[in-house]
Write the structure tokens for this entry.
Amino acid sequence: MVRVKNGLQRQRRHKKFIKLAKGFRLGRSKVYKQVRLALVKQGQHAYQNRKEKKREFRKLWIERLSAVIRENGGKYSTFIAQMNDKNIMLDRKVMSNVAVAFPEVFAKVYETVTK
């Protein structure tokens, strides 16, 4: 049987992964075995932080809404409960953006919900 060597394909494959590890420090950017481990860990962190990003933005929207509602003399929890009772389907992201960009419009929404 003929001996098959895999030098060029292996080199290309390794270079592809090493290119992805650009900016990593020490062996994690140069040594193939460490590069592969570092890229796996990087992927885990990226996945986790995509989930955390959603949580952080929701917290931000709630804080903004709460501040604006307190200025109008109400409480966030009662406001959201009243919105659900009146079947007004605006999510926190939209309401937060409206409250920051167009305070007059949000004041009208607030009056409609609290009546």
Summary: The helical segments are 7-20, 32-71, 76-85, 92-101, 103-114.
